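Proteins fold reproducibly. Next comes a concrete instance:

***
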Amino acid sequence: MHTESKDEMRDKILDAALKRFTHYGASKTTMNEIADDLHCSKASLYYYFPDKKAMHIAVLQKIGEAYFRDMEKEAENVTSASQALFKIVDIRKLFISKFCRLEIFQLLKDVKNTFLEEKKKGMQREIELHTKIIIAGNESGEFNVENPKQVAELLVQASAGLRFAVPDHVTDDMDIDDEMFELVIEKQKQLLTVFINGIKAK
């Protein structure tokens, strides 16, 4: 008979938590409900996670890896660099739309110091994959960029900054509503259009 490893049980807990968080919202989900879904005791959950916040962070790390894998696939299989850059925005939109009930920005606010290193790593990964796409554009003759990494860094940072520039949204690290989210995505696409026009080969 197959005995579950610790890693397998941990993954089952995270999958159950993700299902609950996505459907009901992270703040409205209890550890008891997750334990009931798994037909185990609440003590079993605490064996793997000291509290719900730690579980919440682990859930975000798990889906974050899937998010970056989707973006990195685009960076690995570039046929049109311009289209690949726009596809990255679409992947970001789909991800945030799908997991909006996970209260990502609120968690970042609550654990700002703890999660800061993870946030930096995520930004660096985005810069690296944008760099890869711009280099592919250079190699195909689509772009003419002297310093791909510098341009990628500027694009990623400018796109991220647009979340704090939408009307009526002046405090950072807060969740934004659907209307503001759509406005941010639209502005990110407008910004990307300006960038692409500026780096296209003449």
User: Anything to note?
Assistant: The chain has a mean pLDDT of 86. The chain has nine helices and no strands. The CA atoms of residues 80 and 115 lie 35 Å apart. Residues 112-140 form the longest helix (29 residues).
